[in-house]
Structure formats: structure tokens, C-alpha cells
Specification:
The chain is α+β, with helices and mostly antiparallel strands. The chain has five helices and 22 strands. It has a six-stranded antiparallel beta sheet with strand order 2-1-11-10-7-8, with helices on one face. A six-stranded antiparallel beta sheet has the order 13-12-22-21-18-19, with no helix packed on it. It has a five-stranded mixed beta sheet with strand order 4-3-5-6-9.
Amino acid sequence: MPITLIVRLPGAKDAAHKLTFDGERVVLGRGESADLRLPDPSVSHRHATLRAKGAEYTLIDEGSTNGTFIGGVRLLQGTPRIVKSGDLVRIGRVWVEVKMGELAATPDLALATRDLALALVSQAMKAIGDDVTPKVRVVEGPDVGVVLLLAEEGRTYVIGRGERADLLLSDPDASREHARVLRRGATVLVRDAGAKNGVQMGESQLPRGRDVVWRAPTMLRLAGTVLAVDEPVAIALSELESGADEALKPGEAPKEPTPSVRPKEQSGPAEPSAHAAGAAAPMADVPELGNTATPGARARKKGGVSATDALVVVGAIFVIAISAAALVWLLRG
């Protein structure tokens, strides 16, 4: 059964911070190998694990520094606890809401979980006023020191020798449109724009017509020009993931958020049960639980005689009369 995990942050849109898994195990932690990467120093590198068990999932604390909680109850290390749809789980100081079986699994989870971690770090950096804008720098060639800010998400930036280039190169061997760079969230993508000399990323040649993720410290070579990418958010994420656990002080844990939906067994208006309906409806219309009496029997409880009862009595008298006549005929014979 698919399980959706929603990272609940104050003021954040839940839809932007959720992933759906459909496997036997989901690792929650701060480390790069975690399935749900939570970049907070109060979260251990491998903090807790969700394991599928039939149609259910159990949550296990993996010996974390600050513990794993379902609501206000702390889990014993290594002891599984069943989680239900609507449960709120606290991992360090991060709250995660659980939903069961509502969505299809997130495609390309490895990339999606990194993008989520980058988005969480970016939000935290913006909150304290840090610059999160990725930059492309010329580190070798005629234009060394020139910087291109990738300020607009979703915009394609052109690098080349043409007048319309966003990063204008004076390198005579560069093409007019040598490469195109695009920022998607905190991820930088690069594409060979059909350059005569091609584009080299690290030791490999970029394929033409396809976007490739560009991450530091890998360099990009365009003819005689070498470019580097600066990703403040990626650098911060790397530092957070490699750091030591931060022990929470008493009272430092955030308050439990309000669930986005109530648990499945409590969601929506309660349907009236037969027993509850009977309390509001006339007793003659709604039978009591376990009552197998006929309508005529219920009528007798109220002291009345139904038409059915009358017919039964008449039939009985008729049968007795016939039996008596037959008996008399036999005795006389």
C-alpha cells in the first residue's frame, strides 16, 4: 500500500513538501542515503524506519539522539509501532504527517527526495536572509571572473558569443549559442545548444538536445572557457548532512501541528448506525439489535392485536373444528 509522508512546517504548503512511497521500507533521516531526507541537525542520519507489514506500516526508532514520537508518545528504540493514516510523527524537531493509500508513488524518488531536502534548506536560508541564488562563474579563459546569476526559476539562460547571450563570452572558439542553463528549484540543468566544439562536463561530453544536472564541484568547458557553478543551498545541505546530531533541550521541541485531515476511521460526518437511528426513530419502525420478533409480536408488546394475529387465530379454530368433526365420524363408524 502506498504511504505518503508530508513534512509539516509552519507557513509551508503541504503539497510542496510530500513524497509517496510504495516499497517495503522507508528510511527517515538526515543522511544522504535516507529515503526521506530531513535536513535538520536534531534529526539523526538514520533516525527511524517505516516497514510494510501486510496492509499496515510499522515505525521503528533506529537509536536516534532525540527520539521518535507518534503524537506525544515516544517510541522505544527498536520496538515497532503501527502507524495509521492521519498520524503525526515527530523526528527530532520535524513533524511528519502520514497518509495511507491515497496517491501513486512519486516518480524518480531519488531525485525527488533530494529536491525536497534542497527546498527545505532553501526555505530555512531565506527565513534568515541568506542568499540562495545559484551562480555560474567563469574560472578560466578570457572572461575569468564574470558571474551570471540564475535568479529566475524556469528561465533558460544562454551562454555564448552572440549578442543575445546572457553570459557573453569573448572566447573566439565559443559558438554564438554554446550552452543553455536552466534553474529548476535549487537544481541547475545544462544543455549543449549545438556548439561546434561541444560542451564538456568533467571528463565527459554532454549529449546534444538533453538537459543534464550540473552540480558542484564539476566544471563545464566551452572551447577555451571553463565554468563553475555555485549552489549555496546545495553547499548548506551537504554541511547539514555531514554534521553531528544536535541534542534538543527541554521544551525546545515544536508543538504538534493540526492534522490536515482526520484519520480515515474518523474522517467525514459519522454515518448513523442502526442503533443510533433507533434512538431517534419510532420503535415500531426500527428493530432493536438482536430482536428477531415478527411485526405482529412487536405490536403485541404495545398491547394491540394485529390483523396477522387475528388470521392465525381464525385458522387455528378452523383446523380444530375439522379435526373434531373427523374424530366424531370415526367414533360413529
